[in-house]
Write a structure and sequence with these properties.
With 1352 residues, the chain is α+β, with helices and mostly antiparallel strands. The chain has 40 helices and 26 strands.
Length: 1352
């Protein structure tokens, strides 16, 4: 906390702080200080006056330099010598800022960091541990000692407050102030330590409360302190600790009140700073297995814990290493403290679980939304991080992601922009951490309530017990960027400093005036204009925050800033406090503020430039309703307990969207000041000697700035010129009665105290007697206390002189009293005579002036009486006339009433019979109406009964139908199970047939290979044994030449066994080239054998792949059918669309197979089923998909029947009998397609079905005919045909058709509609096309699975 008394005040210039009547003029040779503005750290330089002019003074410095300065800049100084420094600044020889600075620096250099200024303690932060300065021994040393007896220490101030509380039964308070990094938190801990020592050991209960009081501080530090540029343990919140004592001074209770936690630090902090300690302590001290459970790693860089403006990660990691050891130690201390104040292990784990969830939420901050994308696109979040954060917080992952990505706009979910997403994320993170902090503080206070002694009050604790409060609040802040939090902090400093001025300095001067002492008032500043200006800023901020919460366009930061400056400029007092920022383009280009970005407020410590960006959001303490619902619906009980029920004020029956932080902070600050008003306050001012937190460095200018701002100079001035010690007469007589003989006890208090001062030679200028108090200069009360403790006795001769002086004064007083008594009667008689004469004169003058007016009044009164008499007589006559007239009126009224009564009687007698008859008729009518009503009720009851019976019958029918439906389903299930078993057995049999066919084919190939090898061997043997040489005939020569040409041209011609009969036995000319021919034949045969083996392996692989694809397809269909049946279970109404379960392709169910009905599928589901089973166009007008019968009409194929059954199932929902037949048709089609596949792969297998070729050609495929013809042709050729090089076209087609067919059967395609209308002869020409190529002619594109149908 800083103060507001500036150095530039009109109280005798800057250095002349002593009163003018006590200060002699400067002369040559005087020792002085002069300011040293050229140096960065040194504030003053010592010198000696060499010459004095009319205005200026020449001063020779210690280094010989001579400087000329003005008289107002001189400060007197004195030589310290080798003696000790002054423990109290009020005892200095010369009172000015330079001598105070010199005293503080000298004490700091010797580790004497505490100094008194009267009753105010000045504490200098040493930035190191000083051995022997604290501890239990020091506490015992200061206990019971008066202030000033021992060296300055917080223990002494705490002991003074404790003794005053026990003695006076009045609340005590400590205000510990200073800038950030000055040591306020540590000083508060030292004071709390002494209070616990002084009162906590008297009982077991008090010891437990003392332990919790001391252990609460580490918890608050971990959750409320952080590392800043100025302080490694900076409090980012204000707290007021209270410890309660009973009448005997025993510790009985405690409590903590917090103010304005800086929640923005959770989501943002600058480089070389950290967020709150608890995050780093958890990562550094928690075991690795627990961190793994929370999804954390100790050495990982998390975005929430890293500075956003620190780009060098390695440099940041190196800087963080300095805190590693401290974090581990503090984590152990934190866990121990949480257990001490009553947290269970489950509570501690839940707390760290929420902190881990907050860390994971912070890793989502970089998620962005592409602005160029469509309006329906949303933020892309890391699902793994989101899921982990939701798991730790007990929230639903989808709900958390939806809350962050979307916002409600007129009951419609609209995607958030990147800025809106970050605002929602930061709001959730800040709200969670703030509520965890508040929950922790609340739990600490609850732990103190649990330890209250029996019979203690639950409420109104302040009424029964007295307390000592310790206020540790953030100091004045003037940072590089100052925002809403800094304005609130500086407002608190303004209010507390003004409170210090009003309750210390002003009260001090008022006391002197009340006691009759001579005093010249000092000019003290008034901070009221600053309060009013900040209050107006908060009011305007609330208005614009409300507008922003409602979504109005006027609720922007720019308009708020402009409106604030305009309102301040119209007020003559506020315009001097709040100043508009001047437009400076160069500064804006360098990152400075513009005129619409902020404003300047002049505080006591100097002007501060505030950045108003984001104030509207920061001032709204209401969490988004979506985020609030997430906390409320959390599965984790700890997170659910963080839910707030009251979200803003209710207006017009609806919850307000705005909850003002500034209003709540102002109310809390006012409550704090009202609490301080009930306390006797003790002040501790903390200072930091340098900006770099070095133990030995002392920056004079920095310390001087703090001294001037906190009002220390003015306090020293008042205490030095005044009397810092003041005592009531009763206290002085009771405390120092033993210093004078008993003969002095008979004197009055004032006489006794005066004799005491004279007996012990107290200088006359060092004390003064007021009306009720004795005022003493600094050090005099301590001297009296020392003499009382030492048992000093005054000089008897001096006592006799004092007694004689007292007697002389009494005789003089008696003489004066006698003379006064003799003079008073005569004097009083004169006074009475004068007063009587004056009174008689006044009365005579009054009567003479009053008599004419009195006579005129009497005449007027007589006239008024006569007029009144006449009026009374006239009134009497009027009354008599009125009474006569009234009697006449009564008589006439009586006659009229008599006539009316007679007429009424006559009418009654004559109409009595008719009225009786009318009543009887009315009664009978009422009875008839009642009977009719009863009959109507009976009819309605009968109708309801019949309706109930019909309803019961319908219910019985429904139950009967359900039972029949369940029986049918059971029968269908049993039948399907039997069919499935039959299908599996058939599949096994066919698999065995295929294996046997495959082995037979392999065996045939081996036999063929052996036969070829045997023939080749025989040909070689024949060639070797042939030695006959004959002369070739012309016919043979021509045949040999032809053979040579065939070998040389590498044609496909070869010699067949039929040619042997044309050659002569003895013809050996053709054998000359027989070895070359044999080699060529052997090579081609080997190549052909290899090609056949490779072809066999390839077909085997294709067969396996296609079989796998078919099995997968069947499995998916069976799963869909099973899912459809499960969804239909429990449906009371039978459906016309049964759930189909596709059988194995080889299993052809009978057409009459019945299936259990199911729940009618939706249109979308029915369309998906149709697309899934459709491989051809389901248009009944398509005639090219059928084969013709004998009568010329086109006969539908099995595929058309399957598709037609699917259409029937989709379109005729009411036909329950068509469903089983449709399912059977589809299964037959699948089985036929699978059989085609096996025939393509194994055309010569023994298990192939005879007659399948004709059926396949009828399905639209003519390739089988060509394949079979080619097989027969190749089987009839001789063995030498294998040596031919080119392969037949049919054989190539045989190899490629199966693979092409299988690839095309399960893919979607479409052809133009015209292709479906080609003539039949055109289809015959393309008979080599596969069955699927014919089936894929329709226009509509068909899809096999859901992956292709997505989005259509």
């Amino acid at each position: 906390l800083s103060a507001i008394v500036c150095l530039q005040r009109k109280i005798g210039a800057r250095g002349s702080l002593c009163s003018k009547n006590t200060m002699s003029p400067f002369k040559v040779g005087d020792l002085v200080y002069i300011p040293f503005p050229d140096h960065k750290e040194q504030a003053f330089r010592a010198g000696t006056i060499k010459e004095i002019d009319a205005r200026d003074v020449s001063v020779q410095l210690e280094d010989g330099e001579v400087r000329t300065v003005g008289r107002e800049e001189l400060r007197r100084r004195f030589l310290w010598g080798a003696g000790p420094t002054s423990q109290d600044n009020t005892s200095l020889v010369h009172m000015n800022d330079a001598t105070i600075m010199e005293n503080l620096q000298a004490r700091h250099s010797t580790n004497e960091i505490y100094t008194y200024t009267a009753s105010v303690l000045l504490a200098m932060n040493p930035y190191c541990d000083i051995q022997g300065l604290y501890g239990t021994e020091q506490c015992a040393l200061y206990k019971g000692k008066h202030l000033g007896t021992l060296p300055p220490h917080p223990y002494a101030i705490a002991d003074k407050a404790y003794r005053a509380l026990v003695r006076d039964q009045k609340n005590q308070g400590f205000i510990i102030s200073g800038e950030s990094g000055a040591g306020k938190t540590e000083t508060a801990k030292i004071v709390m330590q002494y209070l616990g020592f002084a009162s906590g050991g008297t009982s077991d209960l008090a010891s437990r409360i003392q332990a919790r009081v001391l252990q609460a501080q580490p918890i608050l530090e971990s959750f409320g302190n952080s590392v800043t540029m100025r302080n490694n343990n900076s409090s980012r919140f204000g707290k007021y600790n209270r410890v309660f004592f009973d009448d005997k001074g025993t510790l009985v209770d405690a409590g903590v009140t917090t103010y304005l936690l800086e929640t923005s630090r959770v989501v943002y902090h600058s480089s070389r700073e950290r967020t709150y300690h608890c995050f780093y302590e958890m990562l550094g001290g928690m075991p690795a297995d627990k961190l793994q459970e929370l999804g954390l790693q100790a050495d990982r860089r998390y975005k929430l814990l890293a500075a956003s403006d620190w780009w060098d990660a390695k440099e940041e990691a190196d800087w963080m290493k300095q805190f590693n050891g401290r974090d581990v130690k503090n984590f152990e201390r934190l866990c121990e403290a949480l257990g001490t104040v009553g947290f269970t292990q489950e509570n501690i784990d839940d707390c760290f679980r929420v902190l881990a969830g907050i860390i994971h939420l912070g890793d989502l901050v970089d998620a962005e939304r592409e602005e160029a994308a469509s309006e329906e696109s949303s933020i892309e979040l890391n699902l793994e991080i989101l899921a982990k954060a939701a798991e730790l917080l007990g929230m639903d992952t989808d709900a958390l992601g939806h809350c962050l990505k979307y916002r409600k706009v007129l009951a419609v979910d609209a995607p958030r922009t990147t800025l809106q997403f970050r605002h929602a994320l930061h709001s959730l993170i800040k709200a969670l951490y703030k509520r965890v902090f508040e929950h922790t503080v609340q739990r600490i206070n609850s732990s103190f309530e649990e330890l209250r002694p029996e019979g203690s009050p639950v409420e109104d604790v302040d009424e029964k017990w007295r307390h000592i409060g310790i206020l540790d609040i953030y100091g004045f802040e003037r940072l590089k960027t100052n925002s809403f939090e800094q304005l609130c902090i500086n407002l608190a400093n303004e209010r507390l400093q003004q409170y210090f001025i009003e309750n210390v300095l002003v009260a001090e001067q008022d006391l002197y005036r009340r006691e009759g002492l001579e005093w010249s008032d000092l000019e003290l500043p008034d901070a009221t204009p600053v309060f009013n200006t900040i209050a107006q800023v908060f009011t305007t901020l609330d208005e614009f925050s409300q507008q922003q919460a409602k979504g109005l366009a006027t609720g922007t930061d720019d308009r708020f800033c402009t409106d604030t400056v305009e309102k301040a400029s119209k007020d003559p007092n506020q315009k001097e406090v709040l100043i508009k920022i001047k437009q400076n383009f160069k500064r804006q280009a360098a990152g400075g503020l513009g005129e619409k970005d902020g404003f300047i407020i002049k505080h006591y410590a100097g002007p501060v430039e505030y950045n108003a960006k984001g104030w509207l959001d920061k001032n709204n303490d209401r969490l988004l309703q979506e985020c609030e619902n997430l906390i409320r619906d959390s599965k984790l009980q700890f997170v659910k307990s963080l839910h707030y029920d009251d979200q803003g004020e209710k207006r017009n029956g609806q919850v307000s969207l705005f909850k003002s932080i500034s209003k709540k902070y102002s109310a809390d600050l006012a409550s704090l000041l009202s609490t301080l008003n009930t306390c006797h306050l003790h002040y501790i001012r903390c200072f930091k000697p340098n900006e770099f937190q070095k133990p030995t460095a002392f920056n004079q200018k920095l310390v001087l700035d703090q001294i001037v701002q906190c009002g220390t100079i003015e306090l020293v001035k008042i205490m030095h010129d005044g009397y810092p010690n003041r005592c009531l007469f009763d206290d002085m007589v009771n405390r120092f009665r033993s210093l004078l003989p008993e003969s002095f006890q008979r004197y009055g208090q004032r006489t006794f105290i005066e004799a005491l001062m004279l007996a012990y030679d107290v200088p006359k200028e060092a004390w003064a007697l007021g009306t009720s108090r004795l005022f003493l200069k600094a050090g005099q009360l301590k001297a009296l206390e020392d003499m009382r403790e030492e048992g000093a006795a005054p000089d008897p001769d001096k006592l006799r002189l004092i007694v004689s002086g007292i007697i002389r004064k009494r005789w003089v007083r008696a003489k004066n009293a006698v003379q006064l008594c003799n003079y008073l009667p005569h004097f009083l008689s004169q006074i009475h005579a004068k007063r009587a004469a004056v009174s008689l004169t006044r009365h005579a003058l009054f009567v003479s002036r009053l008599f004419p007016k009195l006579q005129a009044s009497r005449d007027r009164l007589t006239q008024r009486r006569q007029i009144a008499r006449r009026k009374v007589l006239a009134l009497v006559r009027v009354v008599c006339w009125v009474r006569a007239k009234a009697a006449q009126v009564r008589d006439k009224r009586l006659q009229r009433m008599t006539s009316a009564l007679f007429l009424a009687s006559k009418i009654y007698i004559r109409t009595r019979t008719w009225v009786a008859g009318a009543r009887e008729r009315a009664s009978e009518a009422a009875k008839r109406v009642e009977a009719e009503r009863r009959r109507e009720q009976e009819r309605q009851a009968e109708a309801r009964r019949k309706l109930a019976e019909e309803k019961q019958q319908m219910e019985e029918k429904r139950l009967k139908m359900e039972e029949e439906l369940r029986q049918r389903e059971a029968e269908a299930e049993e039948k399907r199970r039997q069919e499935e078993m039959q299908r599996k057995e058939d599949e096994k049999a066919k698999e065995a047939d295929r294996e046997a066919a495959f082995k037979a084919r392999e065996k045939a190939w081996e036999e063929e290979k052996a036969r070829l090898e045997e023939e080749n061997r025989k040909l070689k043997d024949a060639h070797r044994n042939s030695i006959v040489r004959e002369v070739p005939s012309p016919q043979r020569e021509r045949r040999m030449a032809a053979k040579d040409e065939d070998f040389e041209g590498k044609t496909q011609a070869s010699t067949v066994p039929g040619d042997e009969e044309e050659s002569e036995v003895g013809d050996s000319a053709s054998a000359i080239r027989q070895p070359a021919a044999d080699l060529a034949i052997q090579k081609q045969m080997d190549d052909r054998i290899k090609a056949l083996e490779e072809e066999m392996k390839r077909k085997e692989r294709e067969m396996q792949e296609q079989m796998q694809a078919i099995q997968n397809t069947n499995r998916r269909l069976e799963e869909q059918v099973a899912q459809s049946r499960r969804s239909q279970v429990g449906s009371p109404v039978p459906s016309s669309s049964p759930a189909l379960s596709p059988l194995h392709m080889d299993q052809t169910p009978p057409p009459e197979a019945g299936l259990a009905p199911g729940t009618p599928p939706s249109d979308a589901r029915r369309n998906r089923q149709n697309m899934r089973f459709s491989l051809v166009q389901r248009d009944p007008r398509m005639s090219l998909m059928s084969s013709r019968g004998g009568d010329g009409n086109r006969r539908p194929s099995v595929a058309h029947q399957a598709l037609a059954s699917t259409d029937a199932m989709a379109s005729h929902d009411g036909n329950t009998g068509a469903a089983p037949q449709a399912a059977a048709t589809q299964r037959r089609w699948w089985a036929e397609q699978r059989q085609f596949l096996l025939e393509d792969l194994f055309p010569e297998s023994p298990g192939s079905t005879p007659g399948r070729t004709h059926r396949r050609s009828s399905m639209g495929g003519g390739a089988a005919y060509a394949i079979d013809a080619e097989r027969n042709r190749r089987a009839s050729q001789p063995m030498q045909r294998l040596a031919s090089h080119p392969q037949p076209e049919a054989e190539h087609e045989e190899q490629t058709i199966p693979q092409a067919n299988l690839q095309k059967r399960f893919e979607y395609a479409g052809q133009p509609e015209g292709a479906a209308q080609q003539p039949r002869q055109q289809q015959a020409e393309g008979s080599r096309l596969s069955t699927d190529s014919r089936l894929r002619q329709p226009e509509t594109k068909l899809y096999w699975n859901d992956r292709h149908t997505g989005g259509r």
